[in-house]
Structure formats: C-alpha cells, structure tokens
Amino acid sequence: MSITISDTSIDEFHLQLGLLQTLDVGLIILDQTYHINLWNTFMENHSGLLHTQLYKKNLFERFPELSESWLKHKIDAVFLLNNRSFITWEQKPYFLKFKSYRPLTSDAPYMYQNVTLIPLSSPSGKIEHVGILIYDVTDAAMGRQALEAANIKLKLQSQTDQLTGLYNRGFWESCLQQEFDRFARTPLPSSLVMIDIDHFKKVNDTYGHPGGDEVLRQLATILTEVTRTTDRVGRYGGEEFGILLVGSDAYQAQSVITRLQQRVDSLTVNHYNHDIRFTLSMGLTEISHTFNSHEQWIHMADQALYQSKQNGRNQVTIINAEE
Ligand SMILES: Nc1nc2c(ncn2[C@@H]2O[C@H](COP(=O)(O)OP(=O)(O)OP(=O)(O)O)[C@@H](O)[C@H]2O)c(=O)[nH]1
C-alpha cells in the first residue's frame, strides 16, 4: 500500500500504518479533491472493497449514495477552518451502509456510526488532507432506542386503563383540566358526558367477573368508535366512563349520545354462550365560565347522571350551569 501524505521516516511510517490498520475504527483519508488516499482494514472488512481498488478514486464517484453537497460542505469547512467536525448517528444513522455484525444487537438493521472529520496537516503545516474516522456505535444506538421505546411504553401504560385500553382516571382528568384552562382563553364550547352501566352488579353476579369485564371492554370499543380522535374517553371508575367532547356544545353532544345509545341497544355481548345485554345512564354538561375548576364541571355532569339513575335509568339528563 503506498501512501504519500508526508515525508515521515520509513520506520515511523510503518509503525503508524500498522496502528491504522489494526484500529477497530474506520479511517478514510481524503485529499482536497476528495480522492481516497487511505482506506484502512476496518473499511475493507466492512465494505468488501480493498484499499487498492479505491486508492486515488474520487469518494463521491465510488459512493454515489453519499449526500455529496452536504458532505462536501462539511469537508471543505474542515480544510478551511482547520477544525474537527462531528456527525452523530442521531443526525445520520450511518456514513456508509454496512451490515451490523454485533452479536448482542443482531437485530440491528445496519451498523450505526458516529463520524469525526479531522484536519491533517503536512510537515509544512498546510492542511492538505482530511481524515474521516468512522466509529461503530451500534450497541449504544440500539441501547438508546430500546430505552426510548421502553420510556414511551411506560408513559402510555401510566396513562392507560389496563382492562379497556382507555385513558385511566388520572390522565383523563388531566385532559379535562387542560380543556378547562383552554376554555378560559378561547371560548370554544366543550361538553362532558358521564356514563354509567345500569345494574352492572347484576351482570357480574349473573355471568361472573370475566363476563362483566367483557362488557366493559366492548363498551370501551364503542365509546372510541362513536367519538372523534380529538375527543377524550376515559374510564372514571369501575363501570363509570367519561367522554370529553372537544369543540361540541350540549346540542352537538346529543348526536354523539344518540349514536352511542343506538350502538349499545343493538349490542349483545356473547360470553361463553351467554348473551349479555345492558343499558346506560348518562349525564351531560356543557363547559361554563361559572365553574371555578374542572372538578365542578365533573360534579355537575355526575349530578345529571345521578338524576338519570333516579328517574329509572337507560336515559340521558342534561344539566347546564346558569350563566
Ligand atoms: N367485572 C368488573 N366489575 C367491576 C369492575 N369494577 C367495578 N366493578 C363492579 O361494578 C359493580 C358496580 O355496582 P353498583 O355500584 O352497585 O352499580 P350498578 O349495579 O351498576 O347499579 P346502578 O349503577 O345503580 O345501575 C360492582 O359489582 C363492582 O364490583 C371491573 O373492573 N370489572
């Protein structure tokens, strides 16, 4: 392999070359016209291309997949400013796409790489070459990605009711509070519907707890289907649910309630050859500036729900604040 970077003595040259070759890091040395002066063993092993095949070849002609204008800009800045430059795997997962051979992270789709561009000065002190160091950071990248995925999963779990997949009470109430705060600034109406399954204890007593659970799950699916993705559906307690209908006044909310009643009327939950049917009692309250807190809003909708129960169940009661 011939290298014409400097007038380094032969001994020193061989020592350095040996070091460069055994390095577990990729090294490419480019001249000012982006021609390859060195392609070390790491690069040979991972690219399948030998130094002799690439020596004095233009990097961008040999690797058209490289983003030429972006990389030239980076390399030129290193020549001009005599400063190091870095590219992390978060910015670009890899410099050149190599297979990942890491046994611990065998499911990595490719080798993640961090890259450092370093100015190389000749004995005269002029910067005539740039070194591109390529580090295999697959383990770190995969570890970080797994951690981020686990954090997202944990966050979702902390917001979700396990049985139904709806928002749990804590998160749902925080959505309601946000909506309440939003209403103080922009007067777009919203409505709150509190929903309770009638005689649910009897469902459990007759069909067992798993039968009751199946009813809760199927109702949750319907609640999600009759609402918009911008609405917020939560499990408030055992067999009580809350729907925040964002941007709907009490009148518009009634059309959602009608859709919900129709779906529940026509639903038969089949559980181990038993057909389970049920009805809902509901309370509806539109948001109001007279409420001091979102809790007051829930309280009024709960009162409306209580009246539906008192009046014989399977119905909706609307109570709005007097402005
Ligand atoms: N299967 C099941 N049952 C639950 C769950 N959470 C609460 N429950 C049951 O829900 C029932 C609620 O009973 P009650 O509060 O008396 O209400 P109800 O029987 O629906 O009567 P009304 O609301 O007055 O119509 C109780 O039997 C609880 O054990 C749950 O996660 N799964």
Would you mind describing this structure in some detail?
InterPro entries: Diguanylate_Cyclase (IPR050469), GGDEF_dom (IPR000160), Nucleotide_cyclase (IPR029787), PAS-like_dom_sf (IPR035965), Rev_trsase/Diguanyl_cyclase (IPR043128). Pfam families: GGDEF. This is diguanylate cyclase. This protein is of the alpha+beta class. It folds into 2 domains: 10-145, PAS domain (Beta-Lactamase, 2-Layer Sandwich), CATH 3.30.450.20; 160-318, Reverse transcriptase/Diguanylate cyclase domain (Alpha-Beta Plaits), CATH 3.30.70.270. The protein has helices spanning 10-22, 41-47, 51-54, 59-62, 68-81, 138-159, 169-185, 200-226, 250-265, 294-310; strands spanning 26-31, 36-39, 85-87, 113-121, 127-136, 190-197, 232-235, 240-246, 269-271, 274-276, 280-286, 316-318. A 5-stranded antiparallel beta sheet has the order 2-1-5-4-3. The chain has a 5-stranded mixed beta sheet with strand order 7-8-6-11-12, sandwiched between helices. It has a two-stranded antiparallel ribbon with strand order 9-10. A hairpin with a 5-residue loop joins strand 4 (113-121) and strand 5. Helix 8 (200-226) crosses helix 9 (250-265). The mean pLDDT is 92. Guanosine-5'-triphosphate (GTP) binds at residues 163, 196-201, 204, 209, 212-213, 216, 238-239, 309, 313.
**In percent terms, what proportion of residues is strand?**
15-25%
Q: Name the strands of the widest sheet in spatial order.
A: 2-1-5-4-3
Q: What value does the Rg take, in angstroms?
A: 33 Å
CATH topology of the largest domain: Alpha-Beta Plaits
Whole-Å distance between the termini?
88 Å
